[in-house]
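Quick one: structure for this chain?
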Amino acid sequence: MIEFIMNGLKVRAEEGWTVLEAARFYGLEIPTLCYNEGLTPWGGCRLCLVEIGERPKAKLVSSCTYRAEEGLVVRTDTKRVWTARRMMVELMIAMAPGSKQLQDLASQFGVTQVRFKPKNEECILCGLCVRMCAEQMDGRAIGFQNRGHKRKISTPFDIRSEECRLCGACIYICPACQLRCQGPQAETVLCNSCLTMDPSCLDHFDDLQCWMYDAGRCGTCVREKPTAGK
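Got it. Here's what it folds into:
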């Protein structure tokens, strides 16, 4: 067992555990998208970012790939972390605005605008389909191609792969393949029909105060009651 500090508390973890595994063991919620317990961690979506180390030398790392180590100092919900997560949600919404999972994440993190030009590529390059095909279906029919802005997922030489079994596992696990819910028809790439209020404690404290309590425990949240007929 190793001991380290998480959100100001001393915690213990098994050797080889990642920061994400340790956080979930203690009931801490860290958002993930490209992570799946049955697949190799990749750290591509960057939603699981946490802040490690003491300031001013603290840095952001992906908790699904970073191993917990003795004496490590981890903070899971700082302003810096939330700012980075919101930015990643904006980028992914611009790439695949039709995904309900991404729209829900935008509401969860209070993203009310997308400052990037929509591409409507319906692929966020999370790599879930590639790992699912290779590791669970033993097909290896698809993979990453090119680099930078030309990066994409396809079959070798962009032709039908003889290794593909048409099992549909890649579509099943793909977050961008989940269409937007059939509720309010948003006129923009951002729906926000399920928007919840931002945690206002981040305006007063450097860390999220309700990470281990119910929302509003710290006293800074002021929620408006819905008016009649709305």
